[in-house]
Amino acid sequence: MAAAPQEGTRRAFDAAAADFTALGRHLWGPIGAATAAAAGLRPGERVLDACCGTGASAIPAARLVGPDGVVDAVDLSGPMIDELRRLSADLPQLRAHRADVTTWDAGGYDVVQSALGIFFFPDMTADTERLIGLARPGGRVVFTIWRGDAMAAAGRHLGRAVAAATSAAPPAEREPHLIDRINQAAAYATWLAERGLAEVDVAVHELRLTMTPDVAWLVITGSGYRGALANLDPDVVDVVRERYLESLRAEGVTELDATTLIGVGTTRLPVPNR
Ligand SMILES: C[S@@+](CC[C@H](N)C(=O)[O-])C[C@H]1O[C@@H](n2cnc3c(N)ncnc32)[C@H](O)[C@@H]1O
């Protein structure tokens, strides 16, 4: 029987957890901090951090809400949650949960935030709307996504390298996805407003990674791209690494675009009865 789509996502991030924190210094950390800052968090607030990974946005959020606040940080991946618990041992207000956030039940949050998570949902629109519904009326929502084809170059070079190392056919193009249509600021703002949010604003968070060989390989082993290495023997993975780095060199790739769009909005207050 084919694995559920969530299973593939979970397995890829389970495997990536060890290198996720190392890549975080270059990638997840700055994006997560910008996501938590955009939420305008205040001491004592209750936050849901969906698809929290190892806490790039959940940990700064926990610091901003302080000991009187709460951050429920939710991720599918057990290894990610274990690493988050280790990293947040001094932040009792951060509660890390291993769960599928598309079925998370608690609500009434002051802020619902998610950095680089919502495009993994099986139904991006319906599952995001459900998440928005977990914020209290007048609460804030912050969802961060990649801009354009940020990060895609790494996947292209990896796909070629895996094909060369395993003598397989080059990977097929990814199926078209909603995210391809809304990954620019104006389209993303429109999509968020259509989800019922008010005061929508989308900020562009520019980021470029310098692709030293170590960082370039971490981009694969510390992210969802890790899934492409599943089931390969370690010596084949070594060949993939060499081919991937060669492929980047051959095209003169020294930087990777890691720019994101940080979308914020507020949930509407009920209209009072006349
Ligand atoms: C690209 S990572 C981002 C992690 C973190 N927010 C950050 O910015 O570092 C995406 C995360 O989403 C998680 N994820 C994907 N679908 C999920 C779901 N339905 N419920 C909970 N977590 C999910 C994955 O396990 C992974 O840790």
Give a description of the structure.
41% of the residues lie in helices and 20% in strands. It is of the alpha/beta class. It has a single domain (5-266), classed as Vaccinia Virus protein VP39 (Rossmann fold), CATH 3.40.50.150. The strands form 2 sheets. It has a 7-stranded mixed sheet with strand order 3-2-1-4-5-9-6, with helices on both faces. A two-stranded antiparallel ribbon has the order 7-8. Strand 2, helix 4 (78-87) and strand 3 form a beta-alpha-beta unit. The longest helix has 20 residues, at 5-24.
Mean pLDDT: 94
Number of strands: 9
Task: Identify every distinct bound molecule in the structure, by name, code or SMILES.
Answer: S-adenosylmethionine
- In the predicted model, the low-confidence regions spanning at least 5 consecutive residues are none
> Any idea of the CATH topology?
Rossmann fold
Rounded to the nearest angstrom, the distance between the terminal CA atoms is: 55 Å
Radius of gyration: 19 Å
What is the CATH H-level superfamily? Vaccinia Virus protein VP39
Number of domains: 1
Helix fraction bin? 40-55%
CATH class: Alpha Beta
Percent range for β-strand residues: 15-25%
The SS-based structural class is alpha/beta
Can you count the helices? Answer: 10
User: In CATH terms, what is the architecture?
Assistant: 3-Layer(aba) Sandwich
